[in-house]
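User: Can you predict the 3D structure for this chain?
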Amino acid sequence: MTPSQAFFTVHRDLHREGPGLADDVHWALKVAETGDDVRILDAACGPGADTLVLAEARTIARIDAIDITPHFVAEARARTASFGARVTAWEGDYTLLEHRYDLIWCAGAVYMKGMIPVLDAWRDHLTPDGAIAFSEPVFVTAPPSPAAEAFWDGEGDICDLNNLTETLARADWNILDHRLLIGDPWEAYYTPMEARLEKLQSEAPEPPLQKAIDDATREVALWKAAPDQIAYALFVVRPA
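Assistant: Here is the predicted structure, written as structure tokens:
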């Protein structure tokens, strides 16, 4: 088993692949004033938790979902099969798009390629009134707490909210609104993760999988040590 295979063994059979709640999706749809007869993209959709919410919330919308991981795409397709042809999931790079969208939704994946480069890659794939909703790691205090620094160690440059909003403004993005995802959205992710880790640990994992289990267990423990300090900022933005 390779390290990559071990990682994705840990990250299987989970409801979602990052912090979030259905309420966050509903909030973004309201802020963006996204209607029903629209086209929406779930970028880096994971196993399709938010794809399902989007399809249920906008009952005649065309929903596209994209992810680079094949088994996530398969899970998203299975989860949304009841919606028929109006929901489509495929494997690919979330910055390489063909269509224009009334809303691009991306939960927790923009920062992997850089906030501004990704938003700018999507700029020409929005309809005239289109918007982007995305969540970005954020420090809730300046300077950040030691616990927050420990949690985000190795994840690149994490900013506070003021720095993020200033960066968006300089890049010609208007912020329609934002909210912090703290506490419950993270618990919704880590509680099933803990159950998954316990199951895998009980099966005498081989060394690569044991390391992946240990890494994920440490991540959960770091979050539990300071759940009020670990956050995403969920933004809804539109080109200026």
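Residues 3-239 form a domain with the Rossmann fold fold (CATH 3.40.50.150). The CA atoms of residues 190 and 220 lie 6 Å apart.
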